[in-house]
Each structure stands twice: as structure tokens, then as C-alpha cells.
Amino acid sequence: MLILAKIIPTKFFFTFRLVQFLPNLKFSSLALTNQLKFLTKGAFTPLLQSCSSNPSQLKQIHALLLTSGLSIKNSLLTHLLASFIALGDMSYARQLFDEMHKPRAFLWSTLIRGYVQNGQPNEAASIYKRMHLLGVRPDSYTFPFVIKACAELPEFKAAASTTHAQVVKYGMEFIAVIRTELMIMYVILGEVGLADFLFKTMVERDLVAWNAFIAACAQNGYGTKALALFREMGSTGTRPDAVTLVSALSVCGQLGYSDTGEEIYRIAREEGIDCNIIVENARLDMHMKCGNIDFATKLFEKIPRRNVISWSTMILGYAINGESAKALSLFSRMQREGLRPNYVTYLGVLTACSHAGLVSQGWRYFNRMSRSDDESIKPRKEHYACMVDLLGRSGRLEDAYNFIRSMPIEPDSGVWGALLSACVIHQNVELGQHAADRLYELAPDIASYQVLMSNMYASAGRWDFVTKVRQRMRNKGVRKIAAYSSVEFNGDLHVFYKGDSSHPQSKIIYEKLDCLIKQMKSMGYSSKTNSVLHDVELEEKELILRTHSEKLAIAFALINVGPERPIRVIKNLRICNDCHTFSKFVSQISLREIIMRDKIRFHHFRNGVCSCKDFW
């Protein structure tokens, strides 16, 4: 082993004590000057490769580079830089970079890539700006990561257009990887038309380009566009792979298109990809997100080599479909069969506890995670948010608040949002105000939290505070998301908004709705006007409730969907109390199963009863 005395380079201010001797390097323990002359550039390469995952050893190697005079070799520093980036130590990577002598564009690009891959898009954009100001010409390796940074900073749309202009300026607009990243960026920023334009001027639209565009649309709320692209791809003769099919199945799950999903799976079978576990898991997930619990269960049992994702998909699927007992039972079975759960598995378990009000069980599972020696299942922010939701939904608001205060990590907007939601349910304005204040600091531009704040005050009759919140939203340009419900019928998506009269069948939809409400009233139904969070008269509240999007969607489905099939409705926000009661009555009157998926979970209405047992 080679022992070095404490080295403090004047320029770098880094302190190192020990450099390990590796077998492939034959050093004696003579004077340091005699040892260093044998350290050539070629000798450092295997040393760097051997120590690439050990930050302490890498820093010791850095010390050798400094003392040997080889630190001027940017190729060696590049290797070090890449290693620290891979380890996620961007602070040390930045120190390395800042000491480099006239770094080339490739090194700038490497640092930009590191910031993007380590979730620091602002730093990546800042480095690119500095690179531009110093006159370093970007290359084809620079722009893909700069564009990724722009896509992760949607508030800076101007930066995106400026970057695109610079891509054109440097003549790189036709490089496939750059055009693909531009396309993805525009989808993320909501400029799907621009993304489509870039895609259709592509010289060669290969499978990678198709997959990138389909996945970008699928992951950013443009499901119908993603499916249209999938069909267009098929018409060009481009054969899909597992990546394509997973994206398409994911979209079918988002939209509730189980029939279309099975058509896509048939394509997987034709292509010989149906035995791919990734595709099988995507099919499972799709059916769970469509509320097809029994069918998904049969598929799961048929998969010959289930992995942790298969089990986690089923556990979370059962949880969001109101089958908490099945979720927890499957988790126990998973452990009996010797499979190690991951953090997603536990997210499903805690979600199951939250949706069923199983507080003691939730604590038990959470504590098991916290005390585990396995770092991969230590609680993350999502798990803390689940516990806050479990405690708050069960009415234990003070316990939820104390739990947040004791968190070892900084609570994010998801955690405070869970507390605010519980305060709205249980009408605790004082604690809700505290949660709202924290949310306004953390996420002032997220409309859903602002709406929750407004709803909390409206439930308590604090209309002056409602006015203030809404005025603040207007001042900041934050818009409330319009509520809508959708139903798939004959391959088309039928979307309804509150008071909607634009549908071709509007006349008979409203007639059907009037008939249903008349029958329901004879059975004891009365409008839950406390669901209307507007300061208006009772009669107007009843009229508002009467035309909620969920009711219109259910009436449409009753008219059009055959009695042999369940009625499937997807709501983009949370279902209101009155529509929940309405759906229970309709399932009893029509003898039809109604499966409604809202923002939080599924509600399966059968014979006047909901799977949530009215705990939601």
C-alpha cells in the first residue's frame, strides 16, 4: 500500500491522506518524488476504472494527479468528473470542472448532463448560459441535455424557444437525437402542435423517434394523441417493440380503454412480445387502472415468472380499487414466497391502509420500513404523505400534524396537501390554515392546492376568505382546472363538463337524467347541497348539482352502453358527495355496475353500495 503524507495543494485546497496500492501498479515505498515519476497517464486509467464507485478512493487519486502534475491532463479529469457525476456528487464534480484549464465543449456538456441527471435543471441552464457567454461553441452532445433542462423548467418557455433558435443557428436541427429531444420538450411544455411539426419534417422517423414521441404524449396527458401516433406508426410499417407497447398500454390505462388495450396486446402476441414481463406488467397495470380487478387477478396468476413489479402493481391496484383486504393479503403472500418488496410495494400497502382507515396496520408497516436495514425501502416523501393521509382521513388531525413535525426529511407539498385535504374533510379551519400557508410557500402556482384552500373556507362559510384566495389565484394567473367526466364508447371518448349541452345526444341525456332523479327522490334521495361550494341560494345549488359532469356521463352510458357491460366513468378531479350518492342510487335502480375512477381512487357501485364503504 502506498502511503502519502497529508497533501494540501495550493491551488485546489483538497486534503487527502491515503492512496491505496492496487495490484496492477507496482510502486515501492521510496521517496514520494521517485514514486510519482512512474505514474503515467496510462497507469491512471485502470486505477480510475477500479475505483469508479468509491468516492474516497477517487479523491485520493485526484491527489495523486495534482502532485504528479498530470492534473493538466483533461482526459484524466474527465474520467474523474464522470465518476463523481455517476455517484451524484455534483458539488465535487463542479469543483473539478472549475479547476480545469480551458475545458472543451465536451466537458461543459458532461457537467450539464450531470446536473440534468441529478435533478438540478436550474444549474444545468446556468452552466449552459455561462458556456454561451464565454464563447464556447456547443456541440451535438451539449444540446440534448440543455433541451432536457428546458423541459424540466416549464416556467421558462422563453428559454426553450431561445435554445431551439440556437440549435438552428449552429446547424444541428436535423440531428436525430436533438430533434427528438426538442419534440419531447414541446410536448412537456404543452406545445404538441410544434412537436408534431418537428416529427413530420424528420428525414427518417425510426422506431426510436416514434417511441419517444408516443411516450412523451403518454406521460404528459396527451393520451388520445399517443394512441393516434401508435396507429399511424402501424400504418407506416414500422414494427413496435416492448417500449412502444408499454407506452400504448399505459395510455389505455389512463383513458380507461380496456378493449383497446387488449387489441394492443394482441399486436404484442403477433410480434412475439407477449411473453415479455415488462409488457405483461403493463397489461396488468392497464386492467387495474380500468377497474377490471377480477380479470387482472386471473392474468396475474397466469404469469409464469412474476417479479416485484408484478406484485406491486397488483397490491397498488387492489388498494386504489377499494380492495384493501386483498392488497394486504397479497403482500403477505408475496413475503411468504420469498420476494423482497420495494418502496413501490410499500406505497401500495400504505395506500390500502389509508383507503380503509387501517391506522394501526399502517403504523406497523411504516415502522417496518423505517427500521429496515435495506436503504431501498426506507420511507420517502410519498410514504410520509400516505401516513398523513391515513391519519388525517381517520380524523386524527393533531397526530398527522405532529407526524409531519417529526419527519426526518423536509415535508413537501404532497405531505402538506394531504393534511389540508383532511382538514377540509373534517372542517378544521385553524390547522388547515397552517397547512395552506406552508403550501403557499412551497407551491404557490399549483391550482389544486389553491382550490383546496378555497373549498376549506367555503365549507366553513368563510366567504370573505374564499374571495381572497380566488383573487390571489387571479393575480398570479393560476386557473382552476375545469372538472370533467369521460366515457369510452365504440372507440371514441365522450367528455362532459358541468352543465354541458354540446353533446349531440344532450336532449335525451337530460331527459334520462330527469327521469333518474325523479325515481331516486321517490326512494328517499335528496341533493347534498353542502357539496356546492358557492355562496348562492339553495335552489341554485340544487340546479348546479343536477348538471355535474359525473351525472351527465352516467346518463349517457345508460343510454348507449349495453346492459351486459359495466358503466365506466373517469373523473379528472375528486367525485363530490352528491354525485357519490347519486351513483349508488343509479346502480340500484338500473341494476348496473358503475365503475368510477376519480383523481384519488376507484368507486365500484353495485346494488346501491360503493366499494369505498363511504370512507373516502
Question: Overview of this structure, please?
Answer:
This protein is an alpha+beta fold. Among the domains are: 100 residues, no CATH class; 105 residues, no CATH class. It is built from 31 helices and 8 strands. The chain has a 6-stranded mixed sheet, covered by helices on one side. α8 runs antiparallel to α9 and α8 runs parallel beside α10. The longest helix is centred in the C-terminal third of the chain and has 17 residues. It is globular and about 90 Å long. It starts with a strand and ends in a 6-residue tail after the last strand. The N terminus is likely disordered.
Task: Present the secondary structure layout.
Elements: E1 2-7, E2 16-19, H1 32-36, H2 41-50, H3 55-68, H4 74-86, H5 90-98, H6 105-117, H7 121-133, H8 142-151, H9 157-169, H10 176-188, H11 192-200, H12 207-219, H13 223-235, H14 242-255, H15 258-270, H16 277-289, H17 293-302, H18 308-320, H19 324-336, H20 343-356, H21 359-371, H22 381-393, H23 397-405, H24 413-426, H25 429-442, H26 447-459, H27 463-476, E3 484-489, E4 492-497, H28 506-522, H29 538-546, H30 549-560, E5 567-571, H31 577-590, E6 594-597, E7 602-606, E8 609-610
Parallel strand pairs: 5-6
Antiparallel strand pairs: 1-2, 3-4, 3-5, 6-7, 7-8
Helix pairs in contact: 3-4, 4-5, 4-6, 5-6, 6-7, 6-8, 7-8, 8-9, 8-10, 10-11, 10-12, 12-13, 12-14, 13-14, 14-15, 14-16, 15-16, 16-17, 16-18, 17-18, 18-19, 18-20, 19-20, 20-21, 20-22, 21-22, 22-23, 22-24, 23-24, 24-25, 24-26, 25-26, 26-27, 28-30, 28-31, 30-31
